[in-house]
Here is the input.
Amino acid sequence: MALLNVNHLKVYYPVRGGFFRRVIDHVRAVDDVSFSLNQGETYGLVGESGCGKTTTGRTIIGLIRATAGEVLFEGTDLTKLNRRQFHAYRKDIQMIFQDPYSSLNPRKRVLDIVAEPLRNFEKLSPQEERKKVQYVLERVGLSAESIYKYPHEFSGGQRQRIGIARALTLNPKLIIADEPVSALDVSVQAQVLNFMKDIQQEYGLTYLFISHDLGIIRHMCDRIGIMYRGRLVEEGTSEDIFTNPQHIYTKRLLSAIPNADPRDRSKQAALRREVEEEYAQAYSHYFDENGRAYPLKPISPTHSVAIP
Amino acid sequence: MEKQPLLEIDRLRVSFQIDGDYYAAVDDVSLTIGENEVVALVGESGCGKSALALSIMGLHPPEKTKVEGCLQFKGTNLLSLSVSELNRIRGKEIGMVFQDPLTALNPLMTVGRQIEESMDYHLRLSGAEKKKRTIRLLERVGIPEPEKVYHRYPHELSGGMRQRVVIAIAVACEPALLIADEPTTALDVTIQAQIMGLLKELQQQMKTSIILITHDLGVVAEMADRVAVMYAGEIVEWADVDTIFHRPLHPYTRSLLQSIPSAQTKKERLHVIQGIVPPLHKLPRRGCRFQPRISWIGADKHEPDPKLREVEPGHWVRCTCYQHFYFPDDQTVGGVGYGAS
Here is the structure.
């Protein structure tokens, strides 16, 4: 059984206007999205800014209320739980945030930052707590003395590892990583990505990896969902998406990635022109009259595309 | 490379004041930018690439910055000019595109007014001529319905459109040199592809040279003619783009290329450069600055006072350590990578 099933998830925001500020329309931030995560895999949610990928992640962890749909975590629908019932599941789902500079409280010591989840869930003595914090910090490659330091004393990569340590303290089953490396330099980025892979193996973690960077997505993810305007337009294994993209939006996204070989410049430019032309011509074929993508249809056991 | 240099940077050193002492953020940088050429400055944050660009524009606060060396632009040394003389050049002969289009634009001014501002300063044009020229410019940078956008405010435009406006401002007076500081970093990939296409097109049409500052090697591979790789304020490698990507020599260039996840191919592990870039006031002032980060290469392999040397025509490398450099096996790389403190 899948660890997480997201079924027909919708997050709508009302648009008010006119007389009495009535609801005249909705912004469909997440519009009927379904996917599932298997135990131990990394699922990548990709798309450009405003496509709803972050909203999806935050809804799963309960930071945003779903308008409709289900989030089944080990079979329990999280959207139907009340605060107290949800509390029990908070332990199992943790989040790594994008910006290590704003996601760590500058006035707290590393000990207090990393121990915060522990204090919410487990009653430990200060000694036990310190031991546990030191243990996870060592796991992420920070020295045991760093518990008495403040976030500003660390570099960007180290801060992101503190963020990861905080997410790890409660031995979660699912980690939602929302652009975990986009604020970091390339060499530090490599360090954090390698590390995330290592702890995944060690703890058997499942990742929902949200990113706009297709290079990182290809490196990290087993399966990928491409989002556009609140809907999934294509889903498949990393191989399906990168070597056999079917939806015009996926093709456009892939052709826009800068090619890392200067010798392929003209080839890449030609490909881009070709895809742009196809995009202009075939747009109406891939989207209905309201500009919404069609529901996903399987074209192979692993690969689904939003086509009519 | 038989192009006439448009800008010649000679032994430039830019130092900032920290606690009363000056520390060089850009050290011993010599470069030439030819006519109609795209030169990329690549490196991670803190390597001095933006400090270098800002010194060409004379935008460092003079009371806290020391700029030494020579910046020869079309035969005049920019560093010897007074502010009013410099004002005749920047904005007209040298244009600049900033990273974040939202902060680069004035939110209280219409798009048209902002583009006309530099024309007011540098060109003598009547109101009608200015407007005509501005609308033509907007059209040229690919903005649909330029007559309407002329009257709009920045907040009414999308990120990609704003960056097009910033580019329109930079090229309003048809500069000979355009400095683009991370022009696509704040944008989505599809928009990034469009902006890169636009810059390339303008460069070819207007015969402009571009200094492209970026940390994104993909953008470099697509745009640049020649590339200067910077580390800790120095140029460590300087060559044409094909050499940098296919025959890089300096350990930093090679490590950087190994550490990027690529959408074209899948590798199991990424290379991690061990350690961190030291802060400006703790930089080693003698010896190879990259030495602490490739500690498995013996100290005797480095030069005591590394210089940028031409190892083959047009290919410059700093320090001799590249001759002995190799990647350690994966195990050790992973191990030392995390142990950084």
Chain B touches chain A at residues 44-45, 159, 188-193, 196-197, 215-219, 221-222, 224, 241-242, 245-246, 255-256, 259-264, 266-267, 269-273, 276, 334, 337-341 (CB under 8 Å). DSSP finds twelve helices and twelve strands in chain B. The longest strand of chain B covers residues 5-18. Residues 331-341 of chain B have pLDDT under 50 and may be disordered.
